[in-house]
Amino acid sequence: QVQVVQSGGGLVQAGGSLRLSCQASGSIFSGATLGWYRQTPGKRREFIARISSSGWPVHDASVKGRFTISRDNVKSTLYLQMNSLKLEDTAIYYCNLVSGANEYWGQGTQVTVSS
Questions:
Q1: pLDDT band for position 16 (50/70/90)?
Q2: How many CB atoms lie within 10 A of CB 36?
Q3: Is 67 exposed, middle or buried (0-12, 13-18, 19+ CB in 10 A)?
């Protein structure tokens, strides 16, 4: 059974940086497509970034050039490095694993950007 645990959220000033982590148990991590999403009250969960099993990343235009998705298959951990944070980046961030027809989500972590 796959368990997904997130960490690294918190409060940061605009222009600052933060790194989110997402660690998964089980044997599916290395072959899975991994992603980050975020959600604010009253809005749908939005795609942020995705990284393939071979390490190829795709970032949404809203974060391109500021956020970087990466993975460490030895540690079974997904990362999101967030730089040049803006007020509109405030949200609950979720990690996602897709392996075949199966999909798993982390519990979410709050990121708050202040002025």
A1: very high
A2: 27
A3: buried
Residues 78 and 53: their CA atoms lie apart, in Å, by 11
Kindly state the helix (H) or strand (E) to which residue 46 belongs, with its residue range. Answer: strand 46-51
- Tokens matching residue 88: 């509109």
| pLDDT for 26 beyond 90 | no
Residue 26, class by beta-carbon neighbours within 10 Å (0-12 exposed, 13-18 middle, 19+ buried)? middle
Distance from CA of residue 16 to its chain's centroid? 17
What CA–CA distances, in Å, run from 55 to 7, 20, 58, 70, 110? 21, 17, 10, 7, 26
d(CA 89, CA 112): 8
29 burial (CB, 10 Å; 0-12 / 13-18 / 19+) is: buried
Question: How far is residue 78's CA from residue 22's CA, in Å, rounded to a whole number?
Answer: 5
Q: What is the pLDDT of residues 34-50, one digit of tens each?
A: 999 999 988 999 999 99
